[in-house]
Amino acid sequence: METVFSKIIEGTIPSKKVFENERILAFYDIEPAAPVHVLIIPKKFIASMNDVTAEDLPLIGEIHAVAQQIAIELGIAETGYRLINNCGPDSGQAVPHLHYHLLGGAKLGALVGTSASHA
């Protein structure tokens, strides 16, 4: 399936890359929701988290390790960051290609269903 992310992976749409290897690409979001807002995507097409198979689990683990590495490199690991995966239209997933949002660089607002008592 062709998406904006497949075009970024192909290089037909430019991006400001933060990380790339043969399996994963990370780049700055063009409409940042925080001072640091990086999108992390697998190069393999997976529509959403609902489409992840057992075969994909090592890739998902690698994406999390890459997120951790990027957070360190961008100086947000110590103060904190958020790693978000939206799954499906009700969650706000706008591009049908599995992706994670790495957000940080400022004190982020509370998410629905969270409070200090749940921390």
UniProtKB/TrEMBL annotation:
EC number: 3.9.1.-
Keywords, ordered alphabetically: Hydrolase
Lineage top rank: taxon: Bacteria
A GO molecular-function annotation: hydrolase activity
Motif Histidine triad motif in this chain: 97-101
Pfam families hit by this protein: HIT
EC category: hydrolase
UniProt domain HIT: residue ranges: 4-113
Designated name of the protein: Purine nucleoside phosphoramidase
Native source organism of the sequence: Paenibacillus auburnensis
